[in-house]
Amino acid sequence: MAPHDLRRPFKRPAISDQQKRRELALLRQAQHRRDAQLQARTLASSIAFLQDQNPTHHLDQPISEPGAEPEPESEPQHRDFNVVQASKLRGSEARNWFARQLMLPEWMIDVPPRLNRDWYVFARPAGKRCFVVSSNRTTVSRLRNGSVLHHFPSALPNGARTKDVSGPAHVFCILDCIFHEPDQTYYVIDMVCWRGYSLYDCTAEFRFFWLNSKLTETGACNPPSVYHRYRFSIVPIYDCDQNGLHAAYAGAVPYGKDGLLFYNKHAHYQTGNTPLALVWKDENCSQYVLDTDSKGQVPSQQQVVLELQEDRKLATSDDPPVVLGYLDGDILQKSGLRTGTLLRFAINDGGVRIVDGKLEIADVNYAGKANRARAFADSYSKVFFQYTARHSPLKIDDLVASVHSSQDQESESSDIEMVQ
After folding, report:
1. Cα dihedral sign for 155, 158, 160, 161?
2. Are 69 and 147 in contact (CB under 8 A)?
3. Residue 330 phi, psi (nearest 5)
4. 243 pLDDT exceeds 50?
5. For residues 403 and 260, is the Cβ–Cβ distance under 8 A?
């Protein structure tokens, strides 16, 4: 893909309401600024407290947590617990709470306007999405489902039992990372808190600036050592103009790619699904564009995971959930499934339709319960993306056309101002 050969005379028309939801997300962000400092302290203090309850684990060994029991039927834990409440959580309740701390990108259904001015782009490392917290002279990483990945010493502030990096007791850091197995490296894609200073209510533009300027100062990007078990690395982030998109899509990186991530420059770090961060994939930048089954094969029918709610509703993981169908009454009666259970379905041919920008599922086959390691159902945007990827995929040419269209509009506007 050469950047000078990508001009297209058209741009793919929008097929969903994703842009409207983006505008609403920015509006809510401006209207409802929550206490981000408390949020960050809750997360760091809770992890430190829970780790103190497991003193027998070695610092550089992964910690296994009890994971066989089913999720309780109690109300889901709210994200904004105070420190005392969060520190009392155990087992599945702890995992359930920590699983809700990451900002999860929606899947790109339509190309956002002003892509070249309002968005960053970077190649997503293939690996395990997690957040990393350094606090109380140790470092802990937790996976997307809330379970512990590693408990280890690091060069992050207060991340190891050494005088140089320990610092005051109140110092802690929270990083949004992807752990890349082949080179045992944590690739940092966002910074949530640094030395106790919360970045939740800072724009992505500011967070990425701090990430690039602060992380290397600590030595966290140095090779592993006795007091620094895993190496951290910063992912190259580009403005989503013609050159930046080309670099992210076709440029060489030291890790395996798993699609592209797009971040709105004005977006704050908000937990849960957000349309202000987007993931996009095709066969050239990801090994897994379409979901695979347990054997690693792409099934002939699209697979979805939905949560069983009251009145037989089948809903996504969005907030609020999107109802995509209803479970057959006979299946519910025979299986004895409970509200809150995650279920797998296969979508039959012709079982999906798009009406007024909304995706509707009309014909699905029940395939059983979802993997017990899963914490959430599929998001609405993922179901939509997987459907369009099978029938009318959003291609790199569409992204490039959008960038060119925006640049051409800006050039025309500039020419008009000069004439005036």
Report:
1. positive
2. no
3. -65, -40
4. yes
5. no
